[in-house]
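Re: export button greyed out
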Amino acid sequence: MARSGGGMEGSGGLKKGPWTQAEDKLLRDHVRRHGEGNWNAVRRETRLQRCGKSCRLRWANHLRPNLRKCPFSPEEERQILLLHGLIGNKWARISKHLSGRTDNEIKNYWNTRFKRRQRAGLPPYPPDVERQIKLLRAQNVNPFADADADAAHANASAGLPAPPLLYDMQVFHHLGGSQQPSFHQDGSAAAFGDIVSSRLPPLPTARTQAELHSNQFDTSISGGLVDQSMLIGDEHLLRPNPSMVKVSSMPALSYREPDGSRMLPAHGAGSDGDVSSLGQCPPGQDLHRGATWDFTFAAVKPAKRRTASEVGFSDMFAVAPPGDWFGGGSTAPSPGPSSAVTDEEFNLEMQQFMSMLPLSDEHGWNA
DNA sequence: AATTAGACCAACCGCAGGCGG
DNA sequence: GCCGCCTGCGGTTGGTCTAAT
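Workaround output, generated via the alternate export path:
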């Protein structure tokens, strides 16, 4: 797949064209020994006759671990369309929100798709995606804006301290003791995962949490931030001040009846249709009204500290490796910018947070 | 079977920004 | 402030694959 034929030499004796297995091995070994970065050192320290740029690209697009080479799923395709509609040709930023996908891959996908639709005289986005994009724009919701600043502002107005929220939050299916994420199967799923994750409210304090059942999450403490952002995309549910979180992209939810008596599962998704179609909602009754959604947060240790705006889709849908996450959320003290997070530090902060939560074992939280 | 067009994909190029000297 | 180096990003190119003719 080279542009200029295999083995072509560029200036300075540097090789161009497709990479061989031997070259890949040299690069892999080098990264294993020295880590990523300092790509120009690769040529100095190995027999690899490739420029640093080429090494970086090869590593990023083909050799680095956790790359997914399978075709895009419908969910991923939809995410790409939506994100492109919101931020344009920012392939690197889009790719950060699709776990295991490279910017090049996404760019290729878009270009191919765009050309095809253009030839067919079709608009770049399907009508439903177009609607979602317009809705987001109309709401002035930019999932890539610096959510830290937004959250700080929202909290200041609500008389709350600025949220640290520097850990990625995942929502896990917690029914039946399962702590694996379960995802929507329909194409509309996950479209707003970024907004959810990057605009999560400040996590509950011990006081506010103590007033709630189990692991419920009182959205009133968000100063309205969650209300707006989380309800986006579910037009019929937009309310000025909902009493519970209704998250269109939740993998799976359960909810508690208004009187707090029963937990009911919302199998597979957090939408009205998903729940009522299972016959768990009495006909004609809005089961959400007055109810409180229960859901599970897991904080996944990031490679480095990130601002909320850097947390995205992929974080919502990546499956945390065993032992690398905790149920609950993080109210970790605000760290310095972009410092590394050690396992010890992360675990300690998670344990501190967990100890604040009067969580029941109803869903195997403390198992 | 040969040809062609479109799709897909890997890799290169130029540019911009960050950073240290 | 300037310069050089490094890195990352987005645009583009061109080879390969595949289905249609």
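Residues 17-65 of chain A form a domain with the Arc Repressor Mutant, subunit A fold (CATH 1.10.10.60). The button fix ships in the next patch.
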